[in-house]
Design goal:
globular; alpha/beta; 246 residues
Length: 246
C-alpha cells in the first residue's frame, strides 16, 4: 500500500514538473514582450494602423483626449503621457501624432521612436503652413468643409485606391473640429528645435502635406503620400521591425 502511494505521488510530481516546464516559455515570452505605443494623426483612431504588421509586440494605441483652452503641445503631452505605463517604451508617431510623440519623448525615457509622415523639429514644416496657422486662417474654414472629401483632398493626402479614399473619408468625417483647430494652433506655436535621439524618420517622396523639400528622413518611400501608412504598410512594417530589433 505504502509503495503504491509512493508511486502515485512520484507520477504526480513528474507530471506537474512537465506542466511547469511547458508553461515557462509561454509565461516568459509574455513577460518579455515589448510594448509599442502608437500616436495617430489628427482625428484618426487606431484603424489608421490597420495594415501595419509588427508581430511579437504588444501594441497600445494612444487615445486623444480633449485639449484645454490655450493648452500648448508641451502641456498636452504632459497629460497624455499618463497613457504610457511601460518603462522605456517604443513609440510610433504618425503625422501630428509624431509631433506629439516628440514632445512626450522630452518628458519620459524612450527606448526607440519612429516618426512616419511627420517631423522632428519645427524647421521641417512648410513656412507657408506656419503663416497660415499663425494668422489663424483655419478658424474661418467651416467645420463641414473640414470633414468633406473630394478630388482635391484625395490628391493632397495621397489617397489613390478606393480603400484609401474610403479610409480618408471616414477619417475626416470622424474628425473633432475643435481638436483639429486646437492642433493647428499648437503646431503654429510649436518651437522644438532639437531632433530627438534614438529616432528614425520615414517619409514619402510624394507627401504634399509635409513636403520632402524641408524634411531629411532616414528612409524615403518612393511614391508614398501622407497616408502611405495604408498603401505602403508592408515596407514601413519591415523598416520598423528591423530598427526595433537592432
Amino acid at each position: 500500500m505504502a509503495h503504491s502511494v509512493k508511486v502515485i505521488f512520484s507520477v504526480l510530481f513528474t507530471l506537474s514538473s512537465f506542466l511547469g516546464i511547458a508553461q515557462t516559455p509561454k509565461d516568459t515570452a509574455k513577460k518579455e514582450q515589448k510594448t509599442i505605443y502608437l500616436f495617430s494623426g489628427i482625428g484618426a483612431d487606431s484603424s489608421i494602423f490597420m495594415n501595419l504588421k509588427l508581430p511579437g509586440y504588444h501594441k497600445v494605441y494612444i487615445t486623444w483626449i480633449p485639449a484645454l483652452p490655450n493648452e500648448s503641445l508641451t502641456q498636452y503631452a504632459g497629460r497624455i503621457k499618463s497613457q504610457i505605463t511601460a518603462e522605456n517604451p517604443y513609440i510610433i508617431g504618425l503625422s501630428f501624432g509624431g509631433i506629439m510623440a516628440v514632445e512626450v519623448s522630452k518628458q519620459i525615457p524612450v527606448k526607440k521612436m519612429v516618426l512616419i509622415s511627420s517631423v522632428r523639429t519645427k524647421n521641417e514644416l512648410n513656412r507657408r503652413q506656419f503663416f497660415f496657422m499663425k494668422m489663424g486662417l483655419y478658424r474661418i474654414i467651416p467645420g463641414s468643409l473640414i470633414k468633406r472629401t473630394n478630388f482635391v483632398t484625395y490628391r493632397y493626402f495621397g489617397a489613390r485606391s478606393p480603400e484609401d479614399k474610403k479610409a480618408l473619408t471616414k477619417l475626416l468625417l470622424d474628425t473633432d473640429v475643435s481638436f483639429f483647430r486646437w492642433a493647428l494652433r499648437g503646431i503654429a506655436y510649436w518651437d522644438n528645435k532639437e531632433a530627438p535621439e534614438r529616432t528614425i524618420q520615414i517619409h514619402g517622396t510624394a507627401d504634399r502635406v509635409i513636403t520632402t523639400r524641408r524634411v531629411h528622413p532616414d528612409y524615403r518611400i518612393k511614391g508614398g503620400g501622407h497616408l502611405m501608412i495604408l498603401d505602403k504598410a508592408d515596407t514601413i512594417s519591415s523598416i520598423i521591425t528591423h530598427y526595433f530589433r537592432e
